[in-house]
Structure formats: C-alpha cells, structure tokens
C-alpha cells in the first residue's frame, strides 16, 4: 500500500530554498508551488487547515491562542486535538482504507489525537512548582522506549534562547525510529529549526546562513532514509518570515485610553482581561481585539486605523472572528508586528515577562528567543538557577529581555510576496493553490497507486 511522509519545514519559502543545496537539488526532480498562506499565517491555524481541509471558521483554530470568553482567560499553545473541529486527514483515510495508520510527530494539537502514534513536547509540572522537560506520547510506552534509544528530547533547543538544530535533529531521528518500528502509512514530521533564526535575526541576516545549512543537512539524512524504505516524501511549510523593524504595543495604546484594567499583584502588574473594556491578544503580525464593551467598537476601529504599523482591520468570519476570535482583528504592516506588552514601566512588569512562559503570557513573545543583553554574566545566573533547582529550591529564571525591538523577523499576514509564501514540494504539488488545497493534495497522494 502507498505510504507517505510529510515533512513540515517551518519557515521554508523560495528564498530559503535557494540556499539549501540538498533540498534544492531534490526539488528539481519534483513539482513545487508557493501559495497564499492561511490567515492568520501562524502554526496552529495553518496546520489545522492542512489536516482538515476546512476554513478557519469551521475548524475553529483562530491562532496559536485566543481569549476564552467563558473562562475569561487567554489560552495559548494548548495541546488537545479535540480543539480542532472537523474530520482529520488520517481519519478520512482510515475510513476509506481500513487498517490505515498515522504517526503524528510533533505537529501541534498532538495530545489525545486519534492518530495511532503521536509524540509532542510536554513538560511535567509537580505540585511544588518545579518543571521537568519531557514529551507526551501515544501509546504512552513510546515515550520511554524512544528515550532509551535516542536519549532525552533536547527541550531547551525547541524554544528559548538556546533554540537550535538539536531539537529538529532529535525529531528527525525519532521519525526514523517510529518508521523502523511501526512503518506507518502516513508520517507527519514537524521540523521547526528555520523559524528560530529567521525570527531572531531576520531573513537575509548573516547569522541565518549556517542555520539554513543545518536544517538542509537534517533533510539530506532524513529524506533518503524515508525514500529508501519506499516512502513518498512531501516537503511543505506553514509560512515565510518577513523582515521587521517596528513593534506595535496595542495594549499600551488601549491602556492610555483607560480601556485596560490592571491588577496589582505583589507590587507587579497583571492584565485583567475579564474586567477590561478592550484588550489585544497579540500573535505575531495579527492581533485579536476583544471588546467586553461593544459600544466602543467604532472608536476602537478608528483608533487602530490611525495607529502606525497597523495596515488593516478585519472582522466577522473573514477576519477570523466567531466564537473564539476577536471582535476585530488587526493586521500589521509588512515591517511591523504586535507585542502583548501592557505595562508602562518595566519595574512593574509581571514576573513571567522576563521568563520563558508560553502559557501565562497573554500573547506570543518572540523575545523569549533572546538572553537579556543587559545581564553581565547570564551564564552564571543560569548556572546558579540550575544549582538551586537541583537542591529543590524554587526560583525564576528571569533572563528574557523586555526589549521587543530585538526581534527582526515575524509572520502572520496572508498578503505577502511570492518569496515569503509557504511552499510545497512533491509529486503533483503544483495543484496546491491554497492552504486548504494541501489537504486534498495529501489525501490524493496517500491514495495514489
């Protein structure tokens, strides 16, 4: 029976492909096409569109996070696959091909999925406040078995200042491991490496050259291995990265209008979304604007339209609204992006602002890719923290800067040039003219003779 591997190389577009000797040569013998990205052009939305073939208003994933109106909480980077509505690619194939088996390897929404095999980053959080890096797997036995052969997943290289090639190497090796062990009919493999340097330094920066080469080397090992086992390989991406030099702090603007409610907690400021009249949930170059006071809608729209760095305001399903999305959705200009910052004085910023804390922050924070340049001896600070952690002493690893201007690359817009659009490479890939058509393309390839 036909078997397929889909390698999701995050951040890949024609611009980067030209700098990847192996992948460029491999692509020459196949079809490839760039296409307009999903909106918002972010990981969770794009992947959900690829794997369901549905519009955002149907699968419900309006971004990497959103405001839960009932819980009055912003929720980012949740992992339950039940959040994604609609029939999934592997479910459709299983219905049409009894016995079909899928491995969903580090793609998002990977907990409690109906895929036969899955693995995703998932720390353990004991009740005493400690945090232990780990992965979640289904069946659960895969977790210990893969670590026995490959060692622990290098979690610090998956996100944060140490984000780098080691995590993508480990994922690629574990994809080979599950292939050797189970030979799934569909192997979905997530390789995030390019995303890091492109956001940190921006496209075209000298620092990105070796990082592009690094992921090309991973593909040069993984693709021949898979093809050598008779598997057809498709390479695709979710979005390209745009060069940015301006950050827009929407919540600070709303605060100046006295629409934001702030709580004082132990001398530090916390955003109280449930009590605020208007607030933004920032997600790269897109921000969901939630209005607890709908009478302010036109005033908010007028304010956003006059804000430097904001290009467009959308609403309704077209703007990714509905149950989860904002009442308005702001889209940045090409050279700009949105921060979640709401404090006006760094001295009262919340304690999590200077840490890697993707779940507590009410928005995405790419500054987590940096070590605060104001720290004189950051490595000593990290070493001291780790030593205390081994002794069971709790503390904050507060090494993340509050300078959003450090970020040089972003994404999220769907109006981007051909050299920044996502790309798909594979047999018959020219038929993919949109993110939703990727679903039908993959479905067709899995059923091809």
UniProtKB/TrEMBL annotation:
<dbReference type="InterPro" id="IPR017850">
    <property type="entry name" value="Alkaline_phosphatase_core_sf"/>
</dbReference>
<dbReference type="InterPro" id="IPR002591">
    <property type="entry name" value="Phosphodiest/P_Trfase"/>
</dbReference>
<protein>
    <submittedName>
        <fullName>Alkaline phosphatase family protein</fullName>
    </submittedName>
</protein>
<dbReference type="Pfam" id="PF01663">
    <property type="entry name" value="Phosphodiest"/>
</dbReference>
<dbReference type="GO" id="GO:0016787">
    <property type="term" value="F:hydrolase activity"/>
</dbReference>
């Amino acid at each position: 029976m036909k078997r397929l591997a889909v390698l999701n190389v995050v951040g890949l577009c024609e611009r980067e492909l030209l700098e990847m000797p192996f992948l460029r040569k491999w692509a020459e013998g196949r079809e490839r096409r760039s296409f307009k990205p999903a909106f918002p052009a972010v990981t969770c939305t794009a992947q959900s569109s690829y794997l369901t073939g549905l519009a955002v208003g149907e699968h419900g994933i309006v971004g990497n996070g959103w405001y839960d109106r009932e819980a009055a909480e912003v929720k980012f980077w949740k992992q339950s696959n039940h959040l994604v509505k609609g029939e999934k690619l592997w479910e459709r194939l299983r219905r049409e091909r009894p016995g079909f088996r899928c491995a969903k390897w580090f793609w998002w929404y990977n907990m409690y999925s109906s895929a036969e095999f899955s693995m995703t980053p998932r720390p353990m959080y004991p009740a005493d406040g400690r945090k232990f890096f780990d992965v979640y797997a289904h069946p659960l036995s895969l977790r210990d078995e893969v670590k026995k052969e490959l060692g622990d997943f290098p979690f610090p290289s998956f996100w944060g200042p140490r984000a780098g090639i080691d995590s993508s190497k480990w994922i690629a090796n574990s994809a080979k491991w599950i292939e050797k062990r189970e030979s799934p009919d569909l192997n979905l493999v997530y390789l995030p490496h390019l995303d890091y340097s492109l956001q940190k330094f921006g496209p075209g920066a000298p620092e990105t050259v070796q990082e592009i080469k690094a992921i090309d080397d991973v593909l040069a090992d993984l693709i021949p291995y898979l093809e050598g086992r008779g598997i057809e390989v498709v390479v695709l991406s979710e979005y390209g990265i745009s060069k940015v030099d301006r950050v827009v702090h929407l919540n600070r603007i709303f605060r100046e209008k006295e629409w934001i409610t702030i709580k004082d907690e132990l001398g530090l400021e916390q955003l109280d979304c449930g009590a605020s009249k208007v607030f933004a949930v920032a997600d790269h170059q897109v921000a969901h604007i939630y209005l607890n006071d709908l009478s302010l809608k036109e005033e908010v729209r007028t304010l956003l339209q006059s804000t430097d760095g904001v290009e467009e305001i959308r609403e309704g399903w077209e703007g990714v609204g509905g149950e989860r999305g904002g009442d308005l959705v702001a889209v940045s200009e090409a050279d700009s992006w949105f921060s979640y910052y709401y404090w006006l004085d760094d001295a009262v910023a919340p304690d999590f602002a200077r840490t890697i804390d993707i779940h507590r922050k009410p928005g995405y924070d790419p500054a987590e890719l940096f070590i605060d340049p104001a720290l004189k001896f950051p490595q000593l600070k990290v070493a001291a923290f780790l030593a205390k952690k081994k002794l069971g002493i709790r503390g904050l690893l507060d090494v993340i800067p509050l300078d959003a201007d450090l970020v040089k690359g972003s994404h999220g817009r769907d109006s981007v040039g051909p050299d920044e659009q996502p790309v798909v490479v594979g047999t018959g890939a020219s038929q993919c003219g949109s993110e939703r058509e990727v679903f039908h393309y993959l479905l067709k390839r899995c059923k091809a003779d």
